[in-house]
Amino acid sequence: MQHTSKPGGPGLGGSEPRLRSRTFPSMGTVVSLAVPAAPGTAPQAEVEELEAATAVVEQLFNGLDRAFSLYRPDSEASAMARGELALADASAGMRRLYVEASEWRTLTDGAFTAERPDGVVDLAGIVKAHALREAGTSLLALGLKDWCLNAGGDVLVVGSPIPGSARPWLAGIVDPADRTALLTALPLGNAGKHALATSGTSERGHHIWSAGLQGVRDEGFRQVSVAADGIITADVLATAIMAGGARTLALATSQWDVEVLAVKNDGGLLATPGFRNVGARNS
Amino acid sequence: MRLRAGISAALASAAILVVGWQAGAHVSESNASAVTTSFAGNTGGTNTGPTANGTTGSSASGSSPGTGAGSSTGSGSSSGSSTGSSSSSSLGASAKAGGTYAGTAMETRFGTVQVQVTIKAGVITDVTALHLTDNEQRSVQISARAAPLLRSEVLSAQSANVQTIGGATVTSEAYLTSLQAALDAAHF
Questions:
Q1: How many independent structural domains does chain A possess?
Q2: Judgement on whether residues B106 and B183 belong to the same structural domain of the protein
């Protein structure tokens, strides 16, 4: 690995950025925060800044998990699921996120929904993205200008892995047929979208709820990745396209400024232009 | 005959795909039909060449429901042009049926649109927009649509070159053996 201190670095074929990252478990997965390890600054101060920022993000994730997790019997969401707490009496944060999720249900023609088939309010499909969004706001407030947050495969970035340069963050997308391999990569951040979310199942043949749409199982997708400027948009649309199939895919690409890479059940790919010849565009 | 039916179904699927592609882009139906006719010629039992004209309605062969759906949107006049080999009635040649089929360039409210479908051995391998104008902002919507993509067309990435890994949510346990975990460890 080659290091460089020259800003305004080259394209994908150039030197690799030096990064530092810290992780913590939350929401049933692992969250990682990566920042550039700029040469020339005192490593100890850098590490302390990163660890302080990670602590802020961790606190935020865990706080939301305590309220929204259906796996925690003592959570607000669990109380609602048991019928002990009405939505109208829920916390402002819960009601706000429910309203947001409900709006997305309308916008996606019902492909995304905030309610389980049994009527229980389930915001699990949106709360991780919400946590990433809130964490991003906090990191910006802390004055961090270049970072990459990854929560179990959903990504939100700001700036560049080489501070001061035009170099984008490069996010690999896992091949659902081989989790040790990458299908492709997409530049995020500078001159690109800031958020990337992926919905899918690693089990062939398994398909998630389909909003009552016929033919979704056969023509459906095994994995859907959506890049957008906001993590909520990316996450909701990835989930919605998984559920709604080709019809929702067409809706998403016509209504939102997004890049989509969908892996079909038969292994074929569907992709918007941003996923074509990414290397050529950046070299 | 079974192979022929399969190819017909594949071609009909192409027609449906193109219609869906267009309908999704809110192109008016009368325009969409012009593209599908180049496939309707193939679905007729007696006309096997892509240049077959006209009489799609007279097809009496046992067409699959998919074929029916495909040809029903045709306007009746073949307006597509094609290059490449055309399917013939012999089984051996049919199995290798393929080529590149282009629809007619159409003026839509999005600008000029022309679609090309590549078929190899009865399987659609690519659908591309041959000609798009972007003098209006709306035409960007068409080019922003998701289209079939060959794996060789995407950037082949190695985990060593990326800074983060996107994928369906991994559990805490699965994280331990994930590519992201390897990256995080390397960035310690």
A1: 1
A2: no
Q: Quote ipTM for the complex.
A: 0.83
In a shared domain, residues B138 and B112? yes
Tell whether A224 is covered by a domain. yes
A9-29: pLDDT as tens digits: 334 445 678 899 999 999 999
The pLDDT of residue A179: 85
The answer to whether residues B63 and B92 belong to one domain is yes
- Look over chain A and give the mean of its residue pLDDT values, rounded to a whole number: 86
Q: How far apart are CA A122 and CA A115, in angstroms?
A: 5
With CB atoms and an 8 Å threshold, state whether A32 touches B24: no
Per residue in B117-165, pLDDT (tens digit) is 777 777 766 666 655 554 444 444 445 677 887 777 776 777 778 999 9
Domain that holds residue A146: 19-160+167-282
Which of the pair, A47 or A219, is modelled with greater confidence? A47
Q: How far is B46 from chain A (nearest CA, A)?
A: 31
Report if residue A108 sits inside a domain: yes
How far apart CA A17 and CA A9 sit, in angstroms, is 9
- The answer to whether the CB atoms of A154 and B163 lie below 8 A apart is no
Instruction: Give A-chain residues touching B175 at CB under 8 angstroms.
Output: 29-30, 152
Number of domains in chain B: 2
| pLDDT given for residue B130 in this prediction | 57
Q: Which residue of B has its CA nearest to A239?
A: B168
Nearest CB to B168 within list A37, A161, A201: A201
How far does B68 lie from chain A, in Å, by closest CA? 18
Q: What does the pLDDT look like over A64-91, one tens digit per residue?
A: 999 999 999 999 999 999 999 999 999 9
Q: Which residue of A has its CA nearest to B129?
A: A273
What pLDDT was estimated at residue A53?
97
Look at B157 and A172 and tell me if their CB atoms are within 8 Å: yes
Same-domain check for residues B110 and B173: no
Residues of chain B contacting residue A200, judged by C-beta atoms under 8 Å apart:
167-168
Nearest by CB to A170, which of B25, B163, B188? B163
Same domain, B145 and B162: no
Residue range(s) defining the domain that contains residue B130: 2-149
